[in-house]
């Protein structure tokens, strides 16, 4: 506890929850990897057909299946896990796990084909054709592998930048079909199924639990919440030429577990756009009666929301995100917002303002006209005596204290930054640069809370 703040008690439970959730996840992965290895060793001999190469092929296939199950868990959006780790972190881990899945399955294919080709004394390509077209359910596995490669290629950064979110998401859904096809291949061909009752029980339980989490968290829970709350657009308020705020109301919103700093995936149920899901943060603290989002027209995906009509029905999935006051460890707070990343920061400022603690706010924008919600921020800052700095200019700007938001500049605005929790939200380039600044200023990592405003990028 900081000197001079006897009434403040840091919320240590959320931080412990973050650590515990991370280590529980790692421990379960390690335990399952060990169990898969044990099942393989108990049910396989190196003297079996294909020898060492085939054994390596089957083992890498099993590890690939385990990594695929982990991917399902990471993207299931299980509330207990997501609220402690944050959807941005889980999405990043999901992305990197996906590349491990591909490499393990490539190794599986290569080792299996080489092993059987060596056993039969046949050319590699001929052996591959025999396995695919003349071995039970290997064709299903081949289709699953091709689908996963398509998902992996479209998830690469270069391809992701060229695809609309909806197109990328549609391709990504093919991964679920790949899981089912791969599982069918494993059921009919895998030695863990065909010759080991314990292995069958293990893999059925593992796949069933993972797919059950996806079904409950991604389908069941959103449907139940939307049937209960019946969301609709109440009003549309123009904030600037290309920015509007949408006020959304519904039934029993006080029972919706939403907090300032979180976001939802929004679907506005119009004939032309009902299938599009957009991740937007709340731009005001939830009050139990209304939710508010603020949207900037950044292309066809969000430009049409400028003209959405009051009364439009809304389907929302969430809330998501660990960028909340629960992560706070100190009485003093520094909020840093950039661009459209100001929306969750504005909601957080409203929550912190009610507690009347020591708050500093930095809002980074290229021009005064692009500083959306700046007037609201000033009013909230005045209400709670927070210090607010509006930093304007290009990202390469250099001033009296060196580069904008560099170490000297940030320290000049907030000299006690090391003794504050720092909440940072903005475009990826700005976020990365400010994180480097905070590291140079020796701000402890556990006091830095970041939301990258680039969902699933």
From TrEMBL:
One of its GO terms (molecular function) is metal ion binding. InterPro entries: FAD-bd_8 (IPR013112), FAD-bd_FR_type (IPR017927), Fe3_Rdtase_TM_dom (IPR013130), FNR_nucleotide-bd (IPR039261), MRET (IPR050415), OxRdtase_FAD/NAD-bd (IPR001433), Riboflavin_synthase-like_b-brl (IPR017938). Keywords: 2Fe-2S, FAD, Flavoprotein, Iron, Iron-sulfur, Membrane, Metal-binding, Oxidoreductase, Transmembrane, Transmembrane helix. Pfam families: FAD_binding_8 (PF08022), Ferric_reduct (PF01794), NAD_binding_1 (PF00175). The keyword Nucleotide-binding does not apply. The chain crosses the membrane at residues 21-43, 55-75, 96-118, 138-158, 170-189, 201-221. Its cofactor is FAD. CDD domains: FNR_like_3. Gene3D superfamilies: Nucleotide-binding domain of ferredoxin-NADP reductase (FNR) module, Translation factors. GO terms for cellular component: membrane. It is found in: Membrane. It is a multi-pass membrane protein. Residues 226-326 form the FAD-binding FR-type domain. Its main location: membrane. This is Oxidoreductase.
